[in-house]
Amino acid sequence: MMDRDQFREALLGVMEKKEHWASALFADGTVPRHLLPIHLEQEYATYVRDFPVLVARAYVACPLAVVRRELIANVYEEETGGLAAGRPHPELFLEIPRGLGLDVAHYEQIELLPGARAYRGYLDEATLERGWEVAAAVTVLFLEGTRYERGELDPRAEKRPVPPLEEHPLVRHYGLPVESLALTKAHRKVEGEHRAAAWRTLLEGIGSERREAVVDALKGALAHWLAYRDGVAEACGLVRRAA
Residues 67-88, buried b or exposed e (16+ Cβ, 10 A)? Predict the structure, then answer.
């Protein structure tokens, strides 16, 4: 069985691989504007719209009151914006396509690409059928987290970049008004506490007998996420550059 330090390192090892080759191409304006909605629609329908529900599944299944309090605080903010954002986070996401002049009326009937559909199927299985520990890890760590998780735990490690909103790729390359980044602003208000709460939940709440299963589930989430992002990149006309 893994001890706490081994568990922490195994989780960090997975998260440090959460990087996709197409991210730089989305960030530098390579994606044609008329194809950009594909990415936004797939992100929303795959997990953004239902993220509060996914976390709530962990909350409902968890027998530990101290962990449930961490999870329900996350659900409350995501579902209502009552702690920081003022509006539900999925609604704030829709300010992005709206700010780009896109029609958001169809966002509840988006057809998922094959990779996105498989990824969402994995998220549903992980949050419904594998216990609260896996559900929590896949949501509050993998979905919310980044490859900079080590910097959330170690002051000496590389931190998440926090550039000015005016430097956001959607603002620089696609003319998105800064005020449409309401979700990004909300995340910056609460993300520090969300990251700390995620790590408290996993490191203090998950017993040694479940740690290996949680790491395996996170590896599965990473594999499905990479395949999902491959599909989105292909649909957006992106080609992987040679190393």
Answer: bbebbbbbbebbbebeeebeeb
Q: Model-level pTM greater than 0.90?
A: yes
Asked whether the beta carbons of 53 and 131 are under 8 A apart, the reply is no
Question: pLDDT for 65-101, tens place per residue?
Answer: 999 999 999 999 999 988 777 899 999 999 999 999 9
**Structural domain boundaries in the chain:** 4-235
Q: Which CATH homologous superfamily contains domain 4-235?
A: Heme oxygenase-like (1.20.910.10)
Cα separation of 179 and 137, whole Å?
32
The answer to whether 98 and 52 have CB atoms below 8 angstroms apart is no
Q: How far is residue 59's CA from residue 72's CA, in Å, rounded to a whole number?
A: 6
Residues 55 and 144: beta-carbon distance below 8 Å: no
CA distance 104 to 191: 26
- The residue behind tokens 């996401």 is 93
CA-closest candidate to residue 16, choices 222, 195, 182, 237: 222
Cβ burial 211-229 (10 Å sphere, 16+ → b, else e): beebbebbebbeebbbbbb
Do residues 168 and 181 make contact, with C-beta atoms less than 8 angstroms apart? yes
Rounded-to-integer distance, Cα 40 and Cα 154, Å? 32
DSSP 143: I
Each residue of 207-241: pLDDT tens digit? 999 999 999 999 999 999 999 999 999 999 998 87
| Contacts (Cβ under 8 Å, ≥6 apart) of 114 | 231
Measured CA to CA, the distance from residue 91 to residue 167 in angstroms comes to: 23
Residues 6 or more apart in contact with residue 124 via CB below 8 angstroms: none
Who's near 35: CB < 8 A, 6+ residues apart? Answer: 235, 236, 237
